Amino acid sequence: MFRYILLLSLLLLSCSREVVEAPSAAETSLDRARVADSLLSEGQREDAAQLYLSAALLLSPGTPERINLAERALEASDGAFPAAARVLLESAGSDPHAPYRALREGGSALCSDLLPGFHTGAYRLPGHLALMAAESIVTLDPVMAETLLSFSGDLPGSAGEDLLLCRYRAALGTGDIQGQEESWRAAQALDSDELMARFFHHRGMALGEQGIPDLLRSFQLWPAGDMHAAAYAFLRDTILTDAVLAAAVADPFYSGGLWNEVYDIALNSADPPPRVVYLAGRTRDRLGFFQESADLLRRYLDTWPGGEDAPDAAINLARSLGAMGLVEEGMETLSFYRDTWPNHGRISNFPWYAGSLLAENGRWAESIPWFTETITRYPGNTTADDAQFYICLALMKTGRTAEAAEAFGNFNARWTQSVYRPSSRYWYGVLLLQMGDSTGRGVLQRLINDKPESLPAAFARDYLGLPPWAPEYTSEPLGAWMARNGRPEAEPSQSAWDGVFLMEAGCRKWALDLFRAAEEEAGDAHRLAPFYLANDVWERGPWAAYRMWSLEGSVRPLDLWRLRYPAAWPDEVLRESQRSGMDPLLLWSIMKQESAFQPSCYSTAGARGLIQMIPSTSEYIARDNGWSDAYSPDILYDPGTSIMYGAACISSYGRDFRWDVPGTLAGYNGGPHNALRWGWGVDSTEEFFSRITYNETKKYVEIVSHNYLIYKHIWPEYL
User: Fold this and answer.
1) What is the pLDDT of residue 20?
2) How far is Cα 359 from Cα 560, in angstroms, rounded to an integer?
3) Cα–chain center distance at 94
4) What is the rounded distance in angstroms from the CA atom of residue 184 to the CA atom of residue 200?
5) 420-433, pLDDT tens digit by residue?
6) According to DSSP H, which parts of 465-580 are helical?
7) Parallel, antiparallel, or unpaired for β 473-474 and 556-557?
8) What is the mean pLDDT of the chain?
9) What secondary structure does DSSP assign to 680-701, as a single string?
């Protein structure tokens, strides 16, 4: 502060005139702004922010110059800046977004400044603004929150749910029992597990130690909730000393992706329950920390040999040992499992486990009898097609080419719906050609015709010297194409325009409620397709495109392709891609498959947000990048955060896998440790893809690779 005052004084002295006269407010403001520019260029952001504001306050209220200087002050400031944000309110009459921007920049300190505008009806969509303001202050000042909520009226969809929750939180804060009961009943009537999880969470946190049952209920209703990390921090000391409570949180935390929290309990509890130790071992396995996994699973088997999870602990211990290259010890553990629990529900998987452990360690010849046992003894088992396909691979890997070709042919005839069949068709055609049988070309060509978008078809094209698949599109405007096909676009309703207003005001989640209402008013989502394209409604655009995707064969307007495969959140994606060194087109390709551009998306494994990050993985990313101070699993639903963490994580895998796209994608979806087990870096790309045993990962690699090909064609400006 002293430094910028000194600089300002020197600047004013240097500007002294021959004729002494008082400088105008505009001149003085300009001088201060220039000094602020200098400070900002030197990295003195807070000093610059204060000086920009002082320059703004010298000018007349509401003038564009004054507003501009306040905005520069906010841009320079590293945190909330209520004094500068208040200046934005002066433009509310000409800029309806100003109150929303002021509240975002100034935080809860702006709430009282908003009240006059509510009383005079000066704001557009005041209900959403009132809710936004109330949410910012409900913890600090529940009375003020209740005052703000009195201006909210009724709100649709997710905004209505948030309104109920905010009213409940305000009633908790003021001790209004009747208000609490009314909000609770209204929430129950909506039959939403996510909403009720939030209600239980806030009641539990308000009750302290007496609220533990409510917090448990919250965990159980919505394991992937964005408030559970805060609840764990509150409960941690109690959980570590209470084995019953630790056992109660273990499964919700595991399924909600809070794996490091489960591991923390197992490691630091004085008397961890067996279920926690078992699940902690599984979390280490899934994260690729095989030694830690083996230690925990051995601990489980040594301490609770008759425990409920003991058979599964033995299976997973064997697989962790195999992943570490300890083949003999892994096979011995599998034999121990078979001999100890011959009637276990997963015993029919035993030969598959043994065969895959050997194959993943390069012992292909030894694996064949185990895979054969699966086929002969357990032909109806879910691993039967895996085993049959791996027999084909084992024959090929051990040089038994003719037998392998025959086996691939038999597989194609028998397993017509198997996820391995496209790869099997590829290898069948390739091996026939390698043996001099020209019919192999026809096999590969039929694969290309039948599965043109599959990776094996891409491999076949490359093998035959054919150009890669490419999307076909025209330059015809989307609206004209729709009209020509009897699907004319609709005139956007007021709901649609209100949705755009909310998006621009920073309330995308609530905007989606209005877009859905607009779709009902229009008769179908596709009728708003040109509107969504023009206004960057990434969350609804792909669905609108899908609704008319098959109207006219495979040749579609470029606009329709871009609507279904949007360059969403471009500022964030381009910034983080540049920082991490990854291709933004690949990041969009992943985002499309992970979440379909829905920021609130979550999986049954607890992955969250646009890029579907598992909290435990994101915690390690935060540590590696120096973000730990700001990290919490509860922030992963924020689009900017998800993109930042996702880009950092994917790029780390990309560097490890030398930016080989199938390897990077398999590493991200299935775990880098598993990508190595499937032969990445040892086998060819075709073999590596063929060996992926997780159906989800195989499909994921294939779909995202295809997305990437499309993005490179339809968004060449980002190449």
Assistant:
1) 42
2) 45
3) 37
4) 10
5) 999 999 999 999 99
6) 478-484, 494-504, 508-522, 529-535, 541-546, 558-564, 570-580
7) parallel
8) 94
9) TTTS-HHHHHHH---HHHHHHH
pLDDT at 326 over 50: yes
374-417 per-position pLDDT tens digit:
999 999 999 999 999 999 999 999 999 999 999 999 999 999 99
pLDDT at residue 236 is higher than 50? yes
Q: Tell which CATH classification among 1.20.1250.20, 2.40.10.220, 1.25.40.10, 3.90.930.12 matches the domain 273-345.
A: 1.25.40.10
Q: Rounded distance, CA 126 to CA 42, Å? A: 41
Q: How far is CA 660 from the centre of its chain?
A: 22
User: Cα separation of 473 and 478, whole Å?
Assistant: 11
Question: If you write DSSP's letter for every residue of 343-377 in order, what string do you get?
Answer: T-TTGGGHHHHHHHHHHHTT-HHHHHHHHHHHHHH
Residue 78 banded pLDDT, cuts 50, 70, 90: confident
- Domain residue spans in the chain? 2-190, 273-345, 473-553, 570-718
pLDDT band at 18 (very low <50, low <70, confident <90, very high): very low
Place of tokens 């590493």: 667
Assign 270 a pLDDT band (cuts: 50, 70, 90).
confident
Tokens of 169: 């939180």
pLDDT tens digits along 615-674 = 999 999 999 999 998 899 999 999 999 999 999 999 999 999 999 999 999 999 999 999
Confidence of residue 444 (pLDDT cuts 50, 70, 90): very high
Q: Express each pLDDT in 501-537 by its tens digit.
A: 999 999 999 999 999 999 999 999 999 999 999 999 9
The token duo for 400 is: 């038994």
Sign of the four-CA dihedral 31, 35, 40, 44:
negative
pLDDT reading at 12 higher than 50 = no
Query: Which amino acid would we find at residue 47?
Result: D
Average pLDDT over every residue of 575-603: 97
| Matching CATH number, 570-718, of 1.10.530.10, 3.40.50.20, 2.40.40.10, 3.40.50.300 | 1.10.530.10
Helices H / strands E in the chain, number of each: 41, 2
CB 487 within 8 A of CB 527: yes
Residue type, 282: R
Q: Is the pLDDT of residue 13 over 60?
A: no
For residue 50, give every residue at least 6 positions away whose Cβ sits within 8 Å of its Cβ, in sequence order, or none. 1, 4, 73
As a whole number of angstroms, the distance between CA 85 and CA 103 comes to 7
Tokens matching residue 555: 């040749």
The Cα 157–Cα 519 span in angstroms is: 14
**Which DSSP string do the residues of 237-289 spell out, in sequence order?**
HHHHH-HHHHHHHHHHHHHTT-HHHHHHHHHH-SS--HHHHHHHHHHHHHHT-
Burial of residue 638 (number of CB atoms within 10 Å: 0-12, 13-18, 19+): middle
Q: Is the dihedral of CA 566, 570, 575, 576 positive or negative?
A: negative
0.70 exceeded by pTM: yes
Q: Report which secondary-structure segment, H or E, holds 595.
A: helix 584-595
Structure tokens at 242: 């209470």
What's the rounded Cα separation, in Å, for the pair 336 and 707?
A: 45
Separation between Cα atoms, residue 462 and residue 221, nearest integer Å: 49
Give the C-alpha distances (Å, rounded to integers) separating 464 from 131, 441, 444: 61, 8, 8
- Interatomic CA distance for residues 597 and 512, integer angstroms: 12
Nearest in space to 392 (alpha carbons), one of 355, 428, 434, 442: 428
Q: Is 342 exposed, middle or buried (0-12, 13-18, 19+ CB in 10 A)?
A: exposed
Terminal CA-CA length for the chain: 45
